[in-house]
Design a protein that fits this description.
- The chain folds into five domains: 126 residues; 103 residues, Immunoglobulin-like (Sandwich); 168 residues, Jelly Rolls (Sandwich), CATH 2.60.120; 119 residues, Sandwich (Immunoglobulin-like), CATH 2.60.40; 105 residues, hypothetical protein (bacova_03559) (Immunoglobulin-like, Sandwich), CATH 2.60.40.
- Helices cover 2% and strands 47% of the residues.
- The chain has three helices and 53 strands.
- Strands 1, 25, 26, 27, 28, 29, 30, 31, 32 and 33 form a ten-stranded mixed β-sheet that branches. Strands 8, 10, 11, 13, 18, 19, 20 and 22 form an eight-stranded antiparallel β-sheet that branches.
- A hairpin with a 3-residue loop joins β5 and β6.
- The longest helix has 7 residues.
- The radius of gyration is 39 Å and the shape is flat.
Length: 675
Amino acid sequence: MNVSSDGLGKLKDLGSGSYHHVNNSLMAWSKLKEIDITNNVASTLTNYQVKVTLTYDADMQADFDDIRFVDTDGTTLLDYWLESKTDSSTATFWVEIPSHAASATEVIYVYYGNAAASSSSSITNTFLFGDDFAGSSVDSSKWSTTTGTSNVSGGLLVLNAGAGLFAGSYAVPSDTIWEASVNHTGGGNGGGAVRAATTTGYGWVSDGGANLVDILMWGSTLYAQTSSGENSFGTIGAGLRRYKITYRPGDVDSVLYNYENGTSTTSRTGSNAGGTLYPTLYSASGDQWDWFFIRKYASTEPTVSVSSTEANIAVYDDIKIIPASGGTHPHFSKLFTFAETLGSSNAGSVKYQIGLDSNRDGTVDGWYYWSGSAWAAVTTDSTDNNPATTINSNIATFHSEIGTGDAYIKAFLISNGSQAVELDAVNITYEPYNTAPSTPSSLGPASYVNGSTVNNYLPTLNFTLSDTDGADTVKYQIQIDDSSDFSSAIVDYTSALAAQGATSFTVGQAAGSGTYTTGSVSTTLSVGTSYYWRVKAIDNSVSASSYATANSGAIAFVVGQPTVTLGVSGSPLAENGGAATVTATLSGSASQDTTVNISYSGTATNTTDYTRSATSITVTAGATTGTVTLTGVNDALDETDETVIVDISGVSNGTESGTQQITATITDDDATPTL
């Protein structure tokens, strides 16, 4: 385009630019890596299954449940299946690629870093046909039982001797690869590890030659079986082993058989004229299948390379180039990267300024450029601007030096008057502005926020978490201390992210998915001590609220000594061996033993009329009751009923609730003498 003599022209966004968006469903994921996949054949691969091995990263879940694969466009989720894994080490996945151009290298992405995600692995969605026997019974939508009995348990299909399954609703295409993981536990003759068969003839269940293509397990020997006959090609090892058939009917050596025994592989070719075949499993003596699938064939498998470079996930959104009007501008808390795409005929250059609308009223507060040492306000457009590389190198500090809000871009197309200047697109990555969660509310129960004395050294504290960003998940950090400045917290616990709403924390609870900075499951509070506590909310963008402090920073509660009451059961008791139980009950459990000293009185005499098991009751730490036993003594005297009166004479680590006294009556059972 022609520009004015100062060499500056302004580009206005007319809405025809191309911008990149992150899939909204992946906003909770924090990390990604690129995966380069090279198609090694001179034809397009469509809906092709590619094997990808990932090495564990500390940001992943240990069991790889948070893994997701995304197509080249950065937004389309790809079907995948997890074949095998070693927690916190490696995992093998199969990923279905919708379209891969001939002889080209294309990039997909692996997303991870979401502790709350569950696995989306699906053998059904990923392959042409597949079953990993993950349920508790045979999937009747895929298989019918042709003979014998079978069951599914622990992720394994077990076919008992003479049992077979047949998938009559799925015709196996040509140019496919069939794979299975099988444990030949029975050791008998005639089992088909991986096979497909016709719907007629004995071969669709058992050995039938021309009726099927399979790897036959005959004792400890493998046989490749097609219409061309049976040929041995290996020895079966113990445990689960991988069996594979490459099926390309109609040519000489049109079937390739592979067997993997640990690190070694044996193979053999055979021929098959074609025909309609259906997936079939058969066991002659009782065998186990871990999985079975059918995938597409390529003469050379694609080459896969997982990048070692980890990237933080940033969100892409539409940007506007001023002086465009209207539209939605990125509302950011941080800017990460800045990039331009120049046209193929560009011969000039483009420079930029960043604008900020801090209060989001549609008016730019100011324009800024990189001065060489800091972001500075623009004074002269012709000099105060930067190339994209300079903007990108320094944009990460824009939020801390200038501020946050809506971002604007101003672009200057620079030409000598005869040069064409083409700017196709500008991309900016940023962290969306996130409103911090609200300060926790509804702290309670009441007795734990008003300075009351409570008889509980393992209290449960309640509060409510909320965030004006309704989709955010939140966690809490709670601190309990015997000092109001929380300088040496007795408990400092941070929970896992969860939905907003009412929640609670119990002193000494298991950490679960949360973490203790101080304190643990064995933490208890001390009797006679005053405590303070506070809690704050943290959302999934790591924005935190202010602390809510119980009782406005005054003493929240005091752990007091429990009070003691007495009770009796089994009274009246028979003189001849009857028993009554005296129970001391605490108002709440304590963190140390409570000793209740008791005295005895009444008309009954110890050892003559009754015996007692102790003169004190001990209630052990954490318990709320303790007992002594009174047992009647048969004195063979005809007398009136007698009483045992029990009083509390003193309490250690507790207090008597008022005046406690119980009376047990001993009933005389001696006959009145006669003269």
